[in-house]
Design a protein that fits this description.
Elements: H1 18-24, H2 28-41, H3 50-59, H4 61-70, E1 72-75, E2 81-82, E3 88-92, E4 110-117, H5 128-135, H6 144-185, E5 194-195, E6 198-199, H7 201-228, H8 230-234, H9 237-250, H10 252-259, H11 265-281, H12 290-302, H13 304-324, H14 337-346, H15 362-366, H16 370-386, H17 389-428, H18 430-448, E7 464-470, H19 472-478, H20 483-517, E8 525-526, E9 535-538, H21 540-546, E10 549-551, E11 558-560, H22 564-569, E12 573-576, H23 577-585, E13 602-603, H24 605-610, H25 617-655, H26 662-683, H27 692-700
Antiparallel strand pairs: 1-4, 2-4, 3-7, 4-7, 5-6, 8-9, 9-12, 10-11, 12-13
Helix pairs in contact: 1-2, 3-4, 3-5, 6-7, 6-11, 6-18, 7-9, 9-11, 12-17, 13-17
């Protein structure tokens, strides 16, 4: 650890750096300390960390974010002032600034700072950039270094290739849609019609052009499936949509020559809709449309649970109204009319009047007197009530009221709240989400479109990436007169103070971790609260020469110098430094280790590593008192049991039970047997016959 900040990363015989070893052992503290030390040493001389950082992006994405925040290295620039207002990027194979002074995006000269991002190989196709984009957290895309890398790649080749892909897919969608719509809309135009006798010329040419334009997309999907493997490729649902669109727009011509028919209208309409939806996915990486597309996607994902609840409620209501009003056309299941009815109700269409028609004839009502009208209405109402429909109607109206309250008022307002929440989340991270969308598009281009020889071009994958940006102090002086600038300056000062405090706390924690990691080093003295002196690390060979057999005072493990495992591992021993010096100063080499009271213990390597403190004097005293209390309780219980046994023996002696001989017992049994036999004979009842011989045998046993 001391050498990490002084030399470049070393590589062992297995081509592993210390960072690889720490990640293999899943030691987060060491990984963090190693990464920080490497960055402090040099952010541009870390070519050996190309693969370790790629693994770190997957294993510890938060650490890679910290690395991106600190992989800026300032270099000298030949031009102290340039006409720039926002950062510009360039590339070079050396650390020398490539700026010629002609670069500008403003007409005012300002002081500038020149920086180098990352290290040699940082932006390679097989470098850390790929893993950062795939596994990195959202804060990683908020770092200035990764944003500059994305800016360079997007300007170098990402924008042009991505625009070409988008325009090609848009052309395929338009051509396929026009061909299908022309066949349906212009039945008299023979060149676009398809009959069993033959197909129109324009129809064949259009679909052949579409099929040829789809081949590059199939090639890209094949490369992706070959690189990721079939199982990983099948896990991404967007791949199914791409394959469906690609093979679907190619299917009309093969399907026609096999069946002499056109593709079914349902499948064709579904293909047209999915191809146009696929066009929307290409709009994510463009600044004008990317935010809206991400909002739509986020809202749709947030609505999954809402749609499930709506499906449950809608199914219940449709089933209930189908049973209540089977004769009404609006609530029948044929042609899915009931779906349209309830969808219109959600949009505000009244359904109360659809439950029952008005029993009064409007034309007849105009020619009636008041008395005739009342009599007619009463008779019609009685007929309606006698039919039993009014119960169903009343119950249906109650259900409709609950439907309006639960679905139209509660659920639709909940949907509005969900959409507003999704919009706020996307709006807060709009710039970061834009960078992530572009980085994902660039990664797709590098993996599936760029060839192997193109990945060797320095203009696409340079060795060093240079950034030139306006000096921060100049910007502060220009805007220091406004109130917003003063507030921002005050806020930045407070944030700087907080960052300094956090950095001091982090430095202190790093120092403690560093001391813990170097705990096993030679000559280390360890302080413990339960011991007056320090503990010294003693090598195994030096210890066993003097004390071949010993016991750890913490875990009570016995150790023997003849143990083969100990001879192979040679674990160190930690003993009292004062007592050990006395042993070493003794002139007699065969003298036993006889330290003073309180220094007569030794700890093994395991207990020191776990930092298990030894019991203090108070704890030992309390444990001893507890053991004595347990012994006293056991002695009292034993004494009580002995007293109870003595009391029982005394009771038996006092009663003096008269003993009976065997002859008297046999005679008593004979008399009892004769009496029982006489009783059974008189009563005439049968029972278990048990003779005296059996009783004698029982007594003998």
């Amino acid at each position: 650890m001391d050498a990490v900040g002084k030399v470049a990363p070393i590589v062992d015989d297995n081509e592993r750096t210390p960072l690889d070893v720490a990640m293999y052992n899943n030691d987060y503290a060491k990984v963090r300390l190693l990464l920080r030390a490497y960055i402090e040493w040099s952010a541009t001389g870390l070519l050996a960390l190309k693969l370790p950082l790629k693994k770190m992006a997957k294993q510890y994405p938060n650490l890679i974010t910290k690395y991106l925040n600190r992989c800026y290295v300032q270099v000298d620039c030949k031009f102290k002032r340039m006409a720039v207002t926002r950062p510009i990027v360039s590339h070079s194979n050396t650390l020398q600034s490539p700026w010629s002074g002609t670069e500008k995006n403003s007409s005012v000269l300002r002081p500038v700072d020149a920086f180098v991002i990352g290290f040699s190989g940082f932006m390679d196709s097989d470098g850390p950039y790929e893993a950062i984009v795939e596994y990195g957290e959202l804060p990683a895309f908020d770092t200035d270094s990764l944003q500059r890398v994305i800016q360079f790649k997007w300007q170098a080749y990402g924008f042009s290739i991505y625009c070409g892909l988008s325009m090609l897919h848009f052309f395929i969608t338009c051509a396929f849609s026009v061909a299908q719509v022309s066949t349906a809309v212009f039945p008299n135009w023979k060149d676009v019609q398809v009959t069993p006798e033959g197909a129109g010329v324009y129809w064949i040419i259009t679909h052949c052009v579409v099929a040829i334009c789809v081949l590059p997309f199939l090639f890209f999907e094949g490369r992706e499936a070959n690189r990721e493997g079939f199982c990983n490729y099948a896990k991404d649902s967007s791949n199914y949509l791409e394959l469906l669109n690609s093979f679907g727009v190619m299917s009309p011509i093969p399907y026609y020559y096999v069946t002499r028919k056109t593709v079914p209208e349902v499948f064709t309409s579904f293909l047209i809709l999915t191809t146009w939806l696929r066009v929307l996915t290409y709009l994510r990486a463009f600044e004008l449309t990317g935010s809206l597309m991400r909002m739509v996607t986020a809202i749709v994902l947030k609505m999954r649970v809402f749609m499930l609840i709506m499906a449950v409620l809608g199914t219940g209501y449709m089933a209930a109204f189908s049973v209540l009003f089977p004769n009404l056309l609006q609530f029948r299941g044929q042609r899915m009319r009931i779906l349209i009815t309830f969808f219109e109700a959600m949009l505000g269409e009244p359904m109360m009047t659809k439950l029952i028609a008005d029993p009064i004839n409007v034309r007849l009502e105009k020619n009636m007197t008041e008395t005739e009208y009342l009599e007619y209405e009463l008779s019609e109402t009685e007929k309606w009530q006698a039919s039993g429909e009014y119960v169903n109607v009343m119950f249906g109206q109650v259900l409709l009221i609950l439907f309006y309250l639960l679905v139209v008022i509660v659920m639709l307002n909940l949907l509005i709240a969900i959409m507003g929440n999704a919009y706020d989340e996307i709006a807060q991270n709009e710039a970061v989400e834009m960078q992530r969308a572009r980085a994902t598009a660039i990664l797709y281009i590098e993996r599936n479109i760029l060839s192997g020889f193109m990945k060797q071009w320095d203009r696409y994958f340079p060795r060093y990436l240079h950034v030139c940006r306006p000096h921060q102090g100049e910007h502060a002086e220009e805007t220091s007169n406004t109130a917003e600038a003063r507030i921002e300056k005050h806020f930045n000062l407070k944030m700087k103070e907080m960052e300094n405090q956090m950095f001091a706390m982090q430095s202190q924690m790093d120092q403690q971790l560093r001391s813990m990691m170097t705990l096993m080093g030679a000559g280390v003295l360890i302080e413990r609260k339960d011991h007056a002196h320090k503990l010294r690390r003693v090598d195994y060979k030096n210890w066993v020469r003097t004390i071949p057999m010993w016991r750890c005072s913490a875990c009570s493990t016995d150790y023997n110098a003849n143990d083969r495992q100990l001879m192979a591992t040679e674990p160190p021993v930690y003993v009292c430094d004062d007592a050990y010096h006395q042993l070493m100063m003794d002139s007699n080499p065969e003298a036993e280790w006889n330290p003073a009271h309180g220094c007569d213990f030794a700890l093994c390597n395991k207990c020191i590593r776990n930092q298990e403190p030894l019991p203090s004097a108070n704890k030992k005293k309390k444990a001893l008192m507890k053991d004595r209390q347990i012994e006293r309780a056991e002695q009292m219980a034993l004494q009580e049991s002995k007293e109870e046994e003595a009391a029982l023996d005394s009771l038996l002696v006092e009663e003096e039970v008269e003993e009976m001989s065997a002859e008297d017992m046999f005679a008593m049994l004979d008399e009892g047997n004769e009496d029982a036999t006489t009783i059974e004979t008189k009563e005439g009842g049968g029972g278990d016959d048990q003779s005296a011989d059996d009783l004698y045998a029982m007594l003998n046993d």
